[in-house]
Structures are given as C-alpha cells and as structure tokens.
Design brief:
CATH superfamily of the largest domain in chain B: HUPs
Number of domains of chain B: 2
Strand order of the largest sheet of chain B: 7-10-6-1-4-5-11
Structural class of chain A: alpha/beta
Strand order of the largest sheet of chain A: 11-10-9-12-8-1-6-7-13
Number of helices of chain B: 8
Oligomer: heterodimer
Shape of chain B: elongated
Order of helices and strands of chain A: HEEEEEHEHEHEHEEEEHEEEH
Strand content of chain B: 25-35%
CATH class of chain A: Alpha Beta
Order of helices and strands of chain B: EEEHEEHEHEEEEEEEHEHEHEHEH
Distance between the termini of chain A: 58 Å
CATH architecture of the largest domain in chain B: 3-Layer(aba) Sandwich
Number of strands of chain A: 15
Number of domains of chain A: 1
Distance between the termini of chain B: 51 Å
Largest sheet of chain A: 9 strands, mixed
Radius of gyration of chain B: 21 Å
CATH class of the largest domain in chain B: Alpha Beta
CATH superfamily of chain A: HUPs
CATH topology of chain A: Rossmann fold
Radius of gyration of chain A: 21 Å
CATH topology of the largest domain in chain B: Rossmann fold
Helix content of chain B: 25-40%
Shape of chain A: globular
Largest interface: A-B, 82 and 98 residues
Chain lengths: 257, 319
C-alpha cells in the first residue's frame, strides 16, 4: 500500500482512557479496607493516557485530517466528565462501555470487543494507570484482537502503514519496526502534555458519546482487601558537619552498603 | 501441576530480575507442594543448569533464534504452548520491561488471571491471594486469582534472591514458533552506567543543584557506590539530564535498596516513583522540604558541601 493510497483510506485510531484519582489524592479505604474512599477525591484522566497516548493520536490526526480518532473508556456514568475532558483536547467521538470492574481481563475484553468491531489501525494506551498500576490492558487487548503489541513506547513515528517505535528496555531503548494494525502503550517522550482551550471545551459538549453495554465475560481476579503501608518511623537527621555519622548509620544500621 | 517461571534473557544472559522471579517461583512451588521449572526462549550462552541454585528442578528451552528478539505476540504464543506442554498451573514473570510486554498477553491468550506487580508470596489458605502495589506505591491490594491457571509478575527489587544450591536438568522443548512481525532496527544501550530499574543504589539530583554543570559530584558519588544516577522531573524537562533518568509518577518507578535524593524537595509526584525504596536519604538545605517526611535519614545542609564529603567518607569506608 502506498502512502498516498493509505491517506485516502482513512486511518482509524482508538485511544483507551481511564478515570483515575488525581496524583495528589489522599489514599484511604472504607468498608473494612475493601473499598477505595472516594470522598473528596478529584478525578482526572489517567496521565499516561492523556499526556502521551491521546496527544500523540491528536498529532497524527492533525497531520492527516482524514484520520478518525475515537476514545474509549470502561466505566459507569461517573466517568463521563473525564471522557468529555478528553474530548476537549480532541477526537471525533467517545465510547463508554457501561461496566465497572477492577479486573484487567474483564476491561480488556470490553475494549477488544469494540476494537474488533471498529477495525482500528492503531490502538494507543498509557503505559499503566496510576491507580492499579497493572500495565496490562494494552497487551491483553492486542492478544484478544490478535495483532502485534509494542509496550512502553518513548517515541512513535508513522510512515504510511509502518510504525517506528522506540521501546524501553533495561538500561536503554530498542527501535522496533512493525506494520499496522498494532497496539502501543505510551509513556514519557511519545508526546508533550497539552492544555485544552475554550474552543475545544465548547466543541466537546456536542461530540457524540456513545454508551454501549458490556459483552458477556468473566473477571479472573477480585480485590479481597486494600492496605496502607506501615508509617515511617520518622527521619533521623544527621548534622551537616558530621557526614561520617551518616555513612556509619547507612553501613551499620541500615546495612545498605 | 507445577510452577513455571519465565526466565528472561538479553543477549544470551539471564537477567538479574529473573533470579528474583525464579526464587519466587521456587518458594511458591514449595507452598503448593510441587516443583518449580523454568522456561527459556531463544539461544543463550549462560549455563542453564545453574538455575538449579534458585530451586529450579528443570529448565525447558525453546532454542529458536526467532526468540532472541522480543515480539510480544510470538512470545505469548510460545509461552502459552509451553504452559500447556508442561502442565503448569502457576506461571511467574518478572514485572520488568519484558514482563510488562508479555505477561498480560499470555493471560488473555490462556484466559488466566494475572496479578501484575506482586510484592509477596501468594496466600493459599483461602484461594490464591497475591499482594501487589496500587496507587503508585501509596497502598497495597490483596488480589485473589479465581481462574484455574494463575499468573503472577513480581516487582523487581521486592523479593530477595535465595540460592539453595542444586543443578537443574535442561530439556529442549519443541513447539512451533511463529514468524516475528516486529523487527528490531536498533538497540541503544546507555553504556558504562548501571541500568536505573535494576540498580540497588540510586543517586538522584534535583533543581537544588542549580545546573547540569554541577552533576559531576552526583556522578562521583554514584560511581563510588556503583549506583545508577537519576533526577527529578524539572531537571529532565529543562534538559539538564536525559529523560530516561527522570524518576517519579510520570517517569521511571524504582525500588532500590538505597535512594539518595540531593536537592529534591519531594513533591508527591516524585515520591510516587521512589516510595518503594527500602531506605531513603534526603540531602536538602531547606529543613521544610516535604521529602524529609518520607526519608529514613536526612541532612539539612548545602549539597555542594555535603555531597563531596559523603563521597570521601564512603571511599574511606570502602578502602
């Protein structure tokens, strides 16, 4: 397929977004430590989904206006302000799968069902959500749809239907080449955070937000309980003119070297 | 019924994070009253019988050169086939870069529940409950896996390697390997440095260092401790240091034995990337810096005076 032909064939991009507590939220639990305490919590778009996956998709659409850009989230009606906020940055329409789950297989199955039906060329996710930190949705969606997956991308370039992706490895990066369709999980480096403008916010109000019911599937994990880490004993301060004492404490007490 | 540990290799060598996963697998097998086996994909130069010292009885190797490079789709199929061939009911990965690429794919392929980022052995008295970090290290969740086959990926640096002695039997595994769709055009390793996510000690600098020209003392200290260097987000954003050194909520998350933060105030987003460190040392001239609340040891003082002394004292200690 030539680049010209591809441009006319209207690339379709799906960006997965998740609702997460703001990074500065106080983390607490209720119901005998089985439920996250949502009182007073500010909700945001998961930063990896917003800053990197969504913004890179917007850049691709700005380069080629024929591109279709859809957003998807799996969540209850309370996720809608977040998806409207994402639409304020850009994108043509959003899809909310009307289901709530903490199981990544269940969530990925919902996204995969929409993705398979929609025939997307490129599916972007953040590298993980800042609440469950599973780093799992992208890989699972790729497997369920049956297409390649490149994880932890720090750079994403597209020429025609060939993607060149820098992927984080231990102590460096690997440059991968792969043909669409693909799933990519994005992190810092892929794009730069954007702030929505008033025009975008107004436009987002009237963009289509489709609600679809979940496909039948099962959760393979359940959260039994949460716990908070034990409180720190408090910092041991050493006077600035006695650095030797710090070294002694680290060597003899903490035994870290 | 056995425990199968995916033994991750790079350039023919088994990775350090894998030894933790092997130990985790052997201890899980002991809990379940079964044996722990390992799976190696690709050709390696290491002697695989030595994986026995982590409690592994048998190493299955698919010595196919296609597997020397990671294509998550090809790997997932190979691992899923190996799970079937070996009859494993528990599969262990490291939650390192490779684990993040493949464990979830394998989970979806064989419809097995996955706990990604485990920090403790499973509790098997009532189900198969694994503790993992959530909310970027600010809390833990105990997660029960309800599927017949259970997958766990283990957070690097959260489980100590134990060597028990012993030799593993190495056995070739014949499975069909698909052609890779992802091709590797280049590998850019940061040479001469300790990889950040594998480092046991990390020395990190913030805006308090005033400029990139002052990083020499950070590097000297890191070199003395055989540590990796890191930085805060503003430092990476102003290009004083490369982005891959940025630790924090939106950068690299690390869990070293010792984290030394120099001239970093300790914003909550930074803490989210480092709060799994076992011991935190903070050096800051501002006694009100929030980082002191999260630290184990601290010095309120001028980094430009304290850090060279610290390096000298450690050199003295190490002779």
């Amino acid at each position: 397929m030539t680049i010209e032909k591809f441009k006319n064939s209207q690339m379709k991009i799906l960006v997965c977004v998740s609702k997460t507590p703001d990074t500065t939220s106080k983390i607490a639990f209720t119901n005998g430590n089985t439920k996250f305490d949502e009182s007073g919590v500010q909700w945001i778009i998961n930063p990896y989904d917003e800053w990197y996956a969504l913004v890179r998709a917007l850049e691709l659409k700005e380069k080629d206006a024929a591109t279709t850009l859809h957003l998807i989230t799996v969540g209850g009606a309370d996720a809608e302000p977040i998806i409207r906020k994402a639409l304020a940055l850009g994108g043509d329409e959003a899809i909310r799968v009307n289901a709530e789950s903490t199981d990544s297989y269940y969530i990925a199955s919902q996204i995969a069902a929409v993705a398979t039906e929609g025939g997307y060329d490129l599916i972007l996710t953040g590298k993980e959500t800042i609440d469950y930190n599973g780093s799992s949705i992208g890989g699972m969606v790729a497997e369920l749809v049956g297409i390649p997956y490149v994880s932890l991308a720090t750079k994403f370039e597209l020429a025609g239907t060939t993607a060149t992706i820098n992927r984080e490895i231990e102590g460096g990066e690997e440059v991968d080449e792969v043909s669409l369709p693909i799933v990519v999980s994005c992190q810092k480096g892929v794009a730069e955070q954007r702030i929505p403008n008033m025009r975008g916010i107004m436009a987002a109000r009237t963009k289509p937000l489709k609600v679809v019911e979940p496909v039948a599937t099962e959760a393979l994990t359940t959260v039994v309980s949460f716990e908070l880490p034990p409180a720190k004993a408090g910092v041991k301060l050493v006077p600035a003119d006695n650095v030797a004492e710090l070294v002694r404490l680290l060597h003899e007490e903490a035994k870290v070297f | 019924m056995s425990v199968l540990v995916f033994a991750d290799q790079a350039e023919g060598h088994i990775k350090k994070s894998t030894f933790e996963a092997l130990t985790y697998g052997a201890k899980t097998a002991a809990l379940l009253g079964t044996t722990a086996e390992a799976l190696v994909l690709g050709t390696v130069s290491d002697d695989l019988t030595t994986l026995g010292k982590y409690g592994i009885t048998k190493v299955h190797q698919v010595a196919n050169e296609t597997l020397n490079h990671l294509d998550a789709q090809v790997y997932a199929k190979a691992i899923a086939d190996a799970v079937t061939a070996t009859g494993a009911t528990v599969v262990i990965f490291s939650h390192n870069q490779t684990g993040k690429a493949i464990a979830a794919r394998v989970a979806a392929r064989i419809k097995a529940g996955l706990v990604a980022g485990a920090i403790a052995l499973p509790e098997i008295t009532n189900g198969f409950v694994v503790k993992k970090t959530v909310f970027s290290g600010k809390a833990f969740a105990n997660v029960n896996i309800t599927s017949a086959i259970k997958l766990v990926s283990v957070n690097p640096n959260s489980f100590h390697t134990a060597e028990t002695g012993g030799t593993a039997e190495v056995s070739p595994l014949n499975i069909t390997v698909d052609a890779a769709k992802v091709t590797v055009a280049a590998v850019n390793k940061v040479s001469g440095e300790v990889p950040l996510t594998e480092a046991e000690i990390v020395v990190s600098g913030g805006r308090g260092l005033k400029g990139p020209e002052n990083w020499g003392m950070i590097e000297d200290l890191a070199h003395t401790l055989h540590a990796a260097t890191a930085c805060s987000r503003p430092v990476a954003d102003t290009h004083w240091r490369p982005h891959h050194e940025h630790v924090g909520q939106t950068g690299v998350q690390i869990a070293p034995n010792l984290y030394i933060a120099i001239g970093i105030s300790g914003a909550i987003q930074h803490l989210a990337g480092v709060n799994r460190s076992k011991v935190i040392v903070v050096i800051n001239k501002d006694p009100e810096a929030p980082f002191f609340k999260a630290a184990d040891y601290g010095i309120v003082g001028d980094a430009f005076e304290v850090v060279p002394q610290l390096t000298a004292e450690i050199r003295k200690l190490k002779g």
